[in-house]
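Intended use. Records like the one below are meant for learning the mapping from a protein sequence to its folded structure. Do not use them to infer anything beyond what is encoded.
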Amino acid sequence: MNLSGKVIWITGASSGIGEATTYALAKEGCKLIISSRRLEELERVRNNIKLADSDILVLPIDLEQYQHTDEWVKAVIAKFNRIDILINNGGISQKGYALATDSAVERKIMDINYFGNVALSKAVVKIMKQQKSGKIAIIASIIGKFGLPNLTTYSASKHALYGFYDSFRIELKKDNISILIVSPGFINTNVAINAVKGDGELANENSEAMENGMKTDVFARKFIKALKSNRNHKYIGKKELLTVPFKTFFPNIFYNLMYKMNKKNK
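Structure written out for the chain above:
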């Protein structure tokens, strides 16, 4: 797929994976809609790329307020009259054990990572069905393939995305709409720092795995390559990706190792 001239909407565009992908897409000659909660950060990203005003829309959104998805889509259509690709990247992480996490925090994580994500995709698909074409790329996680302590609700939200989009993909095939699920491993972003604890407060603490993770510009290059392809799924990361087949073929050993590592880190 040639991305030049495509109208692409990316959520979570104000930092991390989303910001790096925005820069990569601008170099491909795309027309961009960049979204996140923080307008000032979106403006910073917008000022870092050399796109004419006619080729970019800064659209602040809060995925937790997903009852407004139709309004957001109308704003995009008013600007560009179509949506070729939605990159559903916005989300929130967690640092908290299940029994120490308030139910309100669990709902917040699920509202942003699952319900908000799905609601936006469904609103955009209505436009894509009229166009008879389109593509949705979902940034999930390898944590959607297995569970880890201290990430219980986050893991649940990512597992839910796999279930929904694997099903939705088949439903949309007749409409010439494709779905790509991307599963990052450890990427060097602030996602751990911005994670919510069990009481809803920010963790404000990075993890060694994230600090040593793949650089966001490297991720963006690999992601763009996958976006241009006909793939249904793509893992992007370093050696941590080996945990997926390891868990599949040696589940008992895998969970025993995770248990021992968790005890050591307590």
